[in-house]
Design brief:
Elements (H helix, E strand, L loop, with lengths): L7 H7 L25 H7 L15 H14 L3 E5 L2 H12 L5 E5 L4 H10 L6 E5 L7 H4 L4 E7 L11 H10 L3 E5 L4 H4 L9 E5 L13 E5 L1 H14 L5 H11 L2 H20 L4 E5 L9 H7 L6 E6 L2 H11 L15 E3 L11 H6 L6 E5 L5 H12 L1
Parallel strand pairs: 2-3, 2-4, 4-5, 5-6
Antiparallel strand pairs: 1-7, 6-7, 8-9, 9-11, 10-11
Helix pairs in contact: 3-10, 4-9, 13-15
Bound molecules: pyridoxal-5'-phosphate.
Pyridoxal-5'-phosphate (PLP) binds next to helix 4.
Length: 390
């Protein structure tokens, strides 16, 4: 993958698939399942390492390649592969790199489906996971065994907006010669580049802020070329590829990622500051608020605070549910990182089937409200949340 020549915003717009004979300005969608060969020799060479070219859209196509190249430049990564969903990226990354008997060390606060893979599916293939709490990084080293292959985290976390020290974890992984893999979905490459802190691979659900408009699903893994090669070969054969249409949507979205994320973060900061002074709010979690327990770490590794604000409503479970029912235009939805502000109360909805103990283990207190702050006028968002809190 080529090195970045220009600034982030320029690469986001100017990284583009080669123009076709029509000399289009903006990249077209290559809706084709396969590509043709000139002759028998071309076809033979295309199935060896001699030629890098499009063969079949399960392997590669120009829209996916453009999307991958952009994200590689944004993350400072050597190479990447695009997937149909964020979970396809997570699953394929582990499946390609791990064997029976291998071990994972992971933060307990990871995306729900990732946790389900670790607890329910990977053990079927004799791949087991040990967990640490996000505020117990001093215990991580003691969990690393000779069989440990991957150290895995998300930062900031969902839904508690905890921040993990990536530099500390990157150095720990290097010391023990294990892979450090970071799900960077909440930060986006505009805010945080885990590779700078020692990550070998970075995963994104492109469904969230990368698309940013609640339209398509997508995922991507970028990082060290030799690891991506393994992931590519696994995926080429197992088939979790991103569709050309979704890749086209996502590549277009990345053209505006910087301006969107700037505005998301500005709105989120305004909301977080408002909530900090509210009498029905016990506490507010936002990485760039001085009151955040990991404020210094956040400032060190993030350019902005992100678009997720979490707060603890007075009155716990019952008041949390009331809050959701009183909300007027902000939406109750399972997505995040959308133009539309989304509110959730995990304890009474997404995580209601867990015991209180398990919820607390994952950082979900009974009054925790998560707001994915959108791009509406922030005054309107604050007013909606304010009336629902009163
Ligand atoms: C949404 C999400 C995923 C899964 O992505 P999908 O595109 O929904 O499959 C993984 N990790 C994090 C942190 C997410 O928020």
């Amino acid at each position: 993958m080529s090195e970045s020549k220009y600034h982030f915003e320029t690469e986001a717009i100017r990284t583009q698939a080669e123009r076709s004979s029509f000399l289009e300005h903006s990249s077209p969608i290559y809706v084709t399942s396969s590509y043709v060969f000139e002759d028998a020799e071309d076809m033979r060479a295309s199935f060896t390492e001699e030629k890098q070219r499009n063969i079949y859209s399960r392997f590669s196509n120009p829209n996916c390649t453009e999307f991958v190249e952009k994200v590689c430049k944004m993350e400072g990564a050597e190479s990447g592969f695009a997937f149909a969903t964020g979970m396809a990226a997570v699953f394929s990354t582990f499946a390609a790199l791990l064997s029976s008997g291998d071990h994972i060390v992971s933060a307990r606060s990871v995306f729900g489906s990732t946790h389900t893979l670790f607890t329910k599916y990977f053990p079927k293939w004799n791949i087991n996971t040990s967990y640490f709490k996000v505020n117990e990084l001093d215990k991580v080293e003691s969990l690393i065994k000779p069989e440990t292959k991957i150290l895995y985290v998300e930062s900031p976390t969902n839904p508690g907006v905890e921040v993990l020290d990536l530099d500390f974890l990157g150095k720990l992984a290097a010391k023990h010669n294990i892979l450090f893999v970071v799900d960077n979905c909440f930060a986006t490459p505009y805010i945080q580049n885990p590779i700078k802190f020692g990550a070998h691979l970075v995963i994104h659900s492109a469904t969230k802020l990368m698309d940013g408009q609640g339209r398509v699903l997508g995922g991507i893994t970028v990082g060290r070329a030799d690891l991506i090669r393994e992931i590519y070969l696994f995926s080429r054969n197992s088939g979790p590829a991103l569709s050309p249409f979704n890749a086209w949507v996502l590549s277009k979205s990345l053209e505006t990622l910087a301006v969107r994320v700037e505005k998301h973060c500005e709105n989120a900061t305004r909301l977080a500051e408002y909530l900090e002074g509210h009498s029905n709010v016990l506490s507010v979690k936002y990485p760039f608020l001085k009151s955040h327990p990991k404020y210094e770490v956040a400032k060190k590794q993030m350019k902005l605070g992100g678009n997720i604000v979490a707060f603890e409503i007075k009155g716990g479970l019952e008041k949390g549910r009331d809050f959701l029912n009183k909300i007027l235009f902000c939406t109750l939805s399972a997505n995040l990182g959308d133009t539309r502000t989304i509110v959730t109360h995990p304890a009474s909805t997404t995580h209601s089937s867990l015991s209180e103990e398990d919820r607390l283990e994952a950082g979900i207190t009974s009054g925790l409200i998560r707001v994915s702050v959108g791009l509406e006028a922030v005054e309107d968002v604050i007013e909606d949340i304010s009336q629902a809190l009163s």
